[in-house]
Design brief:
With 465 residues, the protein is α/β, with parallel strands linked by helices. It folds into two domains: 3-38 and 403-460; 46-381, Alpha-Beta Barrel (TIM Barrel), CATH 3.20.20.70. Helices cover 50% and strands 12% of the residues. The strands form three sheets. Strands 3-11-10-8-7-6-5-4 form an eight-stranded parallel sheet. Strands 9-13-12 form a three-stranded antiparallel sheet, with no helix packed on it. A two-stranded antiparallel sheet has the order 1-2. Helix 3 packs parallel to helix 4 and helix 4 (100-118) packs parallel to helix 5.
């Protein structure tokens, strides 16, 4: 029985439980945290290169004329990144069929300037690499010093004016649908420009508009956004290390609620790009009939089309689409071969004209691109309301997770405290038993000595001297 050692163990245990219970008082820990305001449940900012958006949301560029200065500036004003879609933007001009290129340049410049006049927030431009005037639209965006240029529908690797972009403080983000595409773009940039893009947007198969997946891949679980994301994050991380800078990966396609945002960010995304939710807003630049088509559409109406762009696209499969699939084609005049590899002759209709008709609310002569979740849209709201709701949903889920963790911590610490009490009781008993043992031992020793002395005296008395 080593009583000093027992005391030292006991005092260590006391110290340990104090260490836990002083900073984390056990009772009503959650309530205390709330009162002290000790937790932050809001979403993190999104930093791309030198620029920071207060909220981690990029409003996806939506052609044709769906996201112009009005929507982009409203989103930028709430702290997200508002994006103007540049492809065939000239169709909103009166003279597009006279000179499509000039109309595109004029309209894009004007929309960027209008957006800038309406907000001090971050404004981006989305340009499809497949457009025949891709480089002109790129030049206009750089001249107007937009904050971010997003490049999709093709690999932005050749003749990219990277130095001009850097000099103008314009950030670059390609859209990819796989880690392989990200690797090709980053390697080509490294080789050609000794530089890499500032961010990557990974667009999964649930997105609206043109998709970077085959029709089979769209429904294959292996191609789900959350499955693709980790590989893209790993791919980009290698370039982050060699260029010593942070390169955020932004996830897009099917993100609908604040909970979705939280969940995909937990899996490695630094932010999200959303399209569908922003169509159903007051500020969306499309006609109200276009927006209403979102509110009215049902799950079975949402499907894929073979776009003349040469990629599948997700849309509301309305009468216009069904008619073209049955061989009833609208007559059209190609203004200037706006797409590099346009399959309009094969598709027998011009997608730019069809999308522009839809934008103007003429759904009989066009169709509406939508994300896979468009059937969940129930109303048209102001952008600020949408962002507010997403923020609340995001913070609710963070709060819920924090409460669960605190509950678990409370249970663990309460368990430690209960064990400590048991341990103390046992130690006291042990010490008492030890003391009794020592007392008894001493008594026994004394009696033995007494008996020995008595025996010794007896021996002496019977032994002759
Ligand atoms: C009506 C509509 C038009 C779109 N147009 C474009 C476009 O011109 N260029 C592009 O890169 N992406 C385009 N997209 C894709 C969005 O930018 C965004 O990445 C996508 O919609 C995200 O998926 P979500 O709609 O499920 O949020 C479009 C999407 C929609 C719904």
């Amino acid at each position: 029985m080593n009583i000093p050692r027992l005391n030292s163990i006991l005092s260590t245990l006391n110290r340990l439980t104090d260490d836990i219970s002083i900073p984390y008082p056990m009772k009503n820990m959650w309530e205390r945290c709330r009162i002290r305001g000790g937790f932050h449940f809001g979403w993190p900012a999104l930093t791309i290169g030198s620029k920071t958006a207060r909220i981690p949301i990029i409003q996806g560029g939506m052609g044709l004329g769906i996201s112009l200065s009005r929507l982009a500036s409203a989103v930028a004003d709430t702290g997200g990144i508002g994006v103007i879609a540049a492809n065939c933007i000239g169709l909103i001009e009166h003279d597009y069929f006279k000179d499509g290129r000039a109309a595109n340049i004029r309209a894009l410049r004007r929309e960027i300037r209008t957006a800038r006049a309406q907000t001090t927030g971050l404004i981006g431009v989305n340009i499809m690499v497949a457009m025949n005037d891709f480089y002109q639209l790129l030049d206009v965006s750089i001249e107007e010093r937009v904050d971010l240029i997003i490049m999709g529908a093709g690999l932005p690797v050749k003749n990219i004016p990277v130095k001009k972009m850097r000099d103008a403080g314009v950030l670059a983000a390609p859209i990819v649908s796989s880690a392989r595409a990200a690797r090709i773009i980053f390697k080509m940039w490294e080789k050609n420009y000794h530089d890499v893009p500032d961010a990557v947007i990974l667009e999964g198969p649930l997105a609206g508009g043109h998709l970077g997946f085959s029709k089979n891949e769209v429904n294959d679980p292996a191609f789900r956004l959350e499955e693709l994301l980790p590989d893209v994050v790993t791919e980009v991380a290698a370039f982050e290390a060699s260029f010593n800078r942070k390169i955020p990966v932004i996830a897009a396609g099917g993100i609908f609620t604040g909970e979705d945002i939280h969940s995909i960010m937990l899996k490695g995304a630094s932010g999200v790009q959303m399209g569908t939710r922003f169509v159903a807003t007051d500020e969306c630049d499309a006609d109200d009939r276009f927006k209403q088509a979102y509110v009215d559409c049902t799950t079975d109406q949402i499907g894929l089309i073979d776009s003349p762009v040469g990629m599948p696209g997700r849309a509301i499969r309305n009468e216009f689409i069904l008619a073209t699939e049955k061989g009833r084609f609208p007559s059209f005049r190609c203004a200037w071969q706006c797409l590099a590899n346009c399959k309009a002759e094969k598709a027998h209709y011009c997608i730019s004209i069809a999308l522009n008709n839809a934008r103007r609310g003429d759904l009989d002569h066009g169709f509406v691109f939508v994300g896979a979740n468009a059937d969940r849209v129930k109303e048209i709201v102001p952008v600020a309301t949408l962002i507010h709701r997403l923020a609340e949903e995001y913070s609710d889920i963070v709060k819920e997770m924090a409460i669960k963790r605190l509950d678990k911590l409370e249970r663990l610490v309460a368990g430690i405290q209960a064990l400590q009490i048991q341990y103390n009781t046992l130690c006291t008993r042990f010490r008492e038993t030890g003391q009794q043992y020592e007392k008894r031992m001493k008594e026994i020793q004394a009696r033995i000595i007494e008996n020995l002395e008595e025996s010794w005296a007896l021996v002496n008395s019977v032994m002759p001297a």
